[in-house]
Amino acid sequence: MNDERNTSPLGDFIRSHRERVSPQQAGLPAGSRRRAKGLRREEVAALCGISPTWLTWIEQGRTQSVSAATLARLADALLLSRAERDYLFNLAGQKNPDDAHLASDPEAQQALALAVGKIDGPAYVLDGLWFVPAWNAQAATLFRGWLDQPEPRHNLLHFMFLHPLAPQLVDDWPTRARRMVAEFRAEISARRDDGEVGALLDGLRRQSGDFDSLWRQQDVQGREGGERAFNHAQLGRVSYQQLTLRLANAPGLKLVMLLSA
To answer: Does the structure show a pLDDT above 50 at 6?
Structure first.
């Protein structure tokens, strides 16, 4: 059977886009007497550092052993846009590791910081490692003793497991702590080999026996909303409904809102 026809939706997408890229755009000599439009499969494979056979398997949807790095090189070779890269990774059944690094986009952070200030209720921003680059006055009041302190970088996991205020403030701390670790494991699954992730985890496991014990349990859980209760020294017991939103052009950033229950 003709292998151009024996493809998957992923293969159809790859083939369509390699036909749109000229040799000149890819930095290759145009050559003479080219019958195929765009780039040949062999040329794309060479640009990606893989064999033509391996690229054929990818086009057939056989992506079980394809690394995110290979998919990223393929996206570069095909000159894919941001949305097209996401689509490529989705078709291959993988998360785009670039998502986490988009959290450092200063424009995205500024936009979220402005949005946070307009929310009527505690609200804050989390990046891919759960550092908190922005929060509003209500969040500073709720997390008084943490967010209102001049720390170099505030991190939600550091607060939960290393700050003495957390077990007092967070209602049912053991359940919330277990869930947070499971959610964080799910979120960083595409960044297992990232040095920043490793440094954060090593530090937490070394400094907190609770975190180390929960991390070794291998629990994984999706991030969900629901009731969040706090036992505040000045406000008493307060509860909220948590809503988390991601920014479309920077999915590595999350806007967390605590709305009146």
So the answer is: yes
